[in-house]
Amino acid sequence: MSKPLKQIHLAAHFPGVNNTTVWSDPAAGSHIDFSSFAHFARTAERAKFDFLFLAEGLRLREQGGKIYDLDVVGRPDTFTVLAALAAVTERLGLTGTINSTFNEPYEVARQFASLDHLSDGRAAWNVVTSWDAFTGENFRRGGFLPAEERYARAKNFLTAAQVLFDSWDGGEILADQAAGRFLRDARAGAFRHRDQHFDIHGQFNVPRSPQGRPVIFQAGDSDEGREFAASSADAIFTGHSTLEAGRAFYADVKGRLERYGRRRDQLLVLPAATFVLGDTDADARERAREVRRQQVSGATAIRFLEQLWNRDLSGYDPDGPLPEVDPLVSEERISQGRASDRRFRDPLAVAREWREQAEAEKLSIRELVIARTARQTFVGTAESVATQINDLVQADASDGFILVPHITPGGLDVFADTVVPLLQERGVFRADYEGTTLRDHLGLDPLPARDASARAS
């Protein structure tokens, strides 16, 4: 008997603090005006996507002591945007990244429970940690947690929030992690939670929401991130979108679920993916090359190289060769507020790799940066892209994709109009929503509104 076809999950990411967005294109719109978010969300809902996803940047990035202004920076508050989108959509899930390092469980739980009510059960929380003291300065907590403790705090944060979500069952849930137990009392909304990071008790003032709690997402490729997702998340974001890398990641994460008493279908693997469509595959490839040149201008290439070299390279020609001087290895970084430190943990080794590629392929600085930061996952005709997506999902390289267009807010429109109908014809993507909540869309087990179950970490 042949294996039944998997249903594909699709979501849309409104890109933010990165150079994916070609803001200089005449078709690009504002990242501040609500009309941009509304257009994007309505397109995703028209295409029957599972959810819209908003990332969050908590501080403007800097390079060389100045605001990094070569790509999109800044974003209105995530909760405010999602609450407003709840009023202009009916079925689309609403997912927001909220940091566990610089917030408190009661505040975040109250905001997400409120969003779940306002949206009739469409809220989701992407739980992330902060990794740099630079961002922490906005909260007077710069570097207050070593890296190895941030996931521990995140897990305790999530457990505390779940206690709050579950407190409206007609009885108090008292969570004592040290004692490894849950106790109950008779007051709805009353709670108590104690662990190494939090010791809170009081009265939660938002009744149980339509989903019971928001859907939980986690983004992270580290071993700690994978383990956190396996123990606590409903879906994990990843950058692994090729067949080989995707299957390896998929097998690894799904293989961790059993030790937490969970089934393989209780955690979805959703890579981020970009796309460029054309009338022919050759046309799409040419468009993709042009998009990459728009995303990586000469100035952008030099700034990106500075992040690896940790030096001022403003005097170098982006159409010329790589610097002969080696990267400067120092605790002091020229770039602040981005993940370059994690990408370039061994800058001398990375620089050697880049030099070898530039010499072998005769690439300029700009050409090399374009090659090393390639973003187009799916390139081709609508038929070709539909095939690529379906093949990867059926091969267990993912459960679906979070699409990141290079033009906002209208860049998703062509995908919705051309690729989605082809996936629907193949029977691997819904023709219409079958449920009302985000848990319904994702095929996750329901959490009844009166279910007071809670899982201790």
Automatic annotation (TrEMBL):
According to the entry, every stretch annotated as the Luciferase-like domain falls at: 24-395
Residues passing through the membrane, by range: none
Please state what class of enzyme this protein is. Answer: oxidoreductase
Tagged with keyword Flavoprotein: yes
Annotated signal peptide: none
Sorted alphabetically, the keyword list is: Flavoprotein, FMN, Monooxygenase, Oxidoreductase
In which domain of life is the source organism classified?
Bacteria
Q: Has UniProt tagged this entry with the keyword Flavoprotein?
A: yes
Q: Which SUPFAM superfamilies match?
A: Bacterial luciferase-like
Question: Which molecular function terms from Gene Ontology are attached?
Answer: monooxygenase activity
Q: Pfam families per the record?
A: Bac_luciferase (PF00296)
The catalytic activity of this protein is classed by the Enzyme Commission as 1.14.-.-
In the record, the note on similarity to other proteins reads: Belongs to the NtaA/SnaA/DszA monooxygenase family.
- PANTHER family (alphabetical): ALKANESULFONATE MONOOXYGENASE-RELATED, C2H2 FINGER DOMAIN TRANSCRIPTION FACTOR (EUROFUNG)-RELATED
Q: What is this protein called?
A: NtaA/DmoA family FMN-dependent monooxygenase
